[in-house]
Amino acid sequence: MTEMMPQMTPPTTTSPKKLFIKTYGCQMNVYDSDRMADALAPHGYAPTQDMAEADLVLLNTCHIREKASEKVFSELGRLKELQNEKRAAGSDLMIGVAGCVAQAEGEEIARRAPMVDMVFGPQAYHRLPDMLARAESQRHMHPSLKRAVVDTDFPQEDKFAHLPAARKEVTISRGLTAFLTVQEGCDKFCSFCVVPYTRGAEVSRPVEQVVGEARRLAEAGVKEITLLGQNVNAYHGVDGKGRSVGLGELAYLLAEIPGLERLRYTTSHPRDMDAALIAAHRDLDLLMPYLHLPVQSGSDRILKAMNRKHTAADYLALIDTIKAARPDMALSGDFIVGFPGETEQDFEDTLAIIRQVGYASAYSFKYSTRPGTPGAALGDQVDEAVKTERLARLQELVTSLTNQFHASMVGRTLPVLIERVGRMPGQVGGRSPYLQAVHLEGGAELIGAIHPVEIIGVSTNSLSGRLARAAAA
Ligand code: 5AD
Ligand code: SF4
């Protein structure tokens, strides 16, 4: 990254102030960061990619595991230095902490990091301009009188109705694919997880709001939308007639949007994979055959302790039903190793379910105690060294399955949404239906459409291919 000199010209009232947002954690935070940028644009803030030239830095934080929240405090240390440098040079830097760490530790951050001007949780983003105005009014106060503006309430009003919808400019800067949050929060209360506390109870956006935003994205050139939610397949938005609509039915409505070619959604809970959603996978070509469906563990004892409310056999039966509807469905999962009380046998049950499902990809984590969750009160913690060793074994298995999955594509012709120029000159890159990165020789004119690509090789995390001429019409 290049170091920028401090701005030579002092900002005038007409020049826009610069906003830098650093996003941690999940894709929902990526979506939220864009919405925060949209909300601040009418108040004179233009995004910058260079933190050093920012007038306002927002950290959009993640609290899911211990390491994720620690990163925030070390970033705040670095920001303090930047703020001091700027003040010495006669300008200033405002700092806001948003996201799930802010929600969980609002007052604590304000106390530990007094240079922070605003601390606010995910349910307060639509109030950001107002918070900023309040924080700005304190800017010239003596430090001993300054207090961070803290907003970690869960309001009754609909934040999405008050936030600007995804804008064309933002969309274009993200290219041909976009995220769209349709559901937020979670009522599942898995015993390891902070999400029900930081994001709150499950809330679904109304159907017309979602369809309207998807339509605007498609009109702006977006070909692929990923619907987001902590528990996205629990979606139950209200339609114009006051009826509750599930994710399956929503998919059929989105399939009608001209120009929209691909639809994905993440993250799902096995208990919410209902018949309507599975039928949508059978019927709709635009619904991609790649499903992130975490099971976390293959041991019934641990699943029970995790409060997942299903067994390993329930999960395997569900996968069978899904594959009966969509035989080429590729699966992805999340796994936690070293949940309190996990024995070697429990862990081997996890390896067994991974082998049985044959995941195309998986994310795996060492269990990390989150304050306030039921898991934090459990005894029988697993040794860190054991967690490390189990994680390595699990990841070795997943890597070999991922490699097998990629290798099974060689010789096949896949529809690839070409999204960008490649790393090498003369190459372009995109994604297969199974979310694999694919690169091939070709010119920029290929970008923006789905092309048939014959897969000819596999490297660590991507496939290589060549343009397959569509059969003569
Ligand atoms: N420790 C480790 N992993 C966790 N996850 C959620 N909470 C924890 C925790 N306390 C993982 C789960 C979840 C993913 C987003 O993060 O696997 O699916
Ligand atoms: Fe967390 Fe479980 Fe809800 Fe997923 S389903 S967000 S793991 S509580």
Description of the structure:
It contains 14 helices and 21 strands. It has 473 residues and is α/β, with parallel strands linked by helices. Residues 186, 188-190, 193, 195-196, 230-231, 269 line the site of iron/sulfur cluster.
List keywords for this structure.
473 residues, alpha/beta, six-stranded parallel sheet, five-stranded mixed beta barrel, 14 helices, 22% strand, globular, disordered N terminus, binds 5'-deoxyadenosine, binds iron/sulfur cluster
Radius of gyration: 23 Å
State mean pLDDT (0 to 100 scale): 91
Strand content: 15-25%
Uncertain residue segments: 1-13, 168-173
Main sheet?
Answer: 6 strands, parallel
Question: Span between N and C termini?
Answer: 49 Å
Structural class: alpha/beta
Q: What general form does the structure show?
A: globular
Give the spatial strand order of the biggest sheet. Answer: 2-1-3-4-5-6
The percentage helix is: 25-40%
Give a quick precis of the structure.
The protein has helices at 27-40, 66-88, 99-112, 128-137, 159-162, 168-174, 195-198, 207-219, 247-254, 275-283, 300-305, 312-325, 344-357, 384-407; strands spanning 17-23, 45-47, 56-61, 94-98, 118-120, 149-151, 177-181, 183-184, 203-204, 224-228, 236-238, 244-246, 262-266, 290-292, 330-337, 361-366, 413-421, 427-431, 437-441, 450-459, 462-467. By secondary structure, the protein is α/β, with parallel strands linked by helices.
SSE diagram, text form:
Elements (H helix, E strand, L loop, with lengths): L16 E7 L3 H14 L4 E3 L8 E6 L4 H23 L5 E5 H14 L5 E3 L7 H10 L11 E3 L7 H4 L5 H7 L2 E5 L1 E2 L10 H4 L4 E2 L2 H13 L4 E5 L7 E3 L5 E3 H8 L7 E5 L8 H9 L6 E3 L7 H6 L6 H14 L4 E8 L6 H14 L3 E6 L17 H24 L5 E9 L5 E5 L5 E5 L8 E10 L2 E6 L6
The protein binds 5'-deoxyadenosine and iron/sulfur cluster.
The site of iron/sulfur cluster has 10 residues, from helix 7.
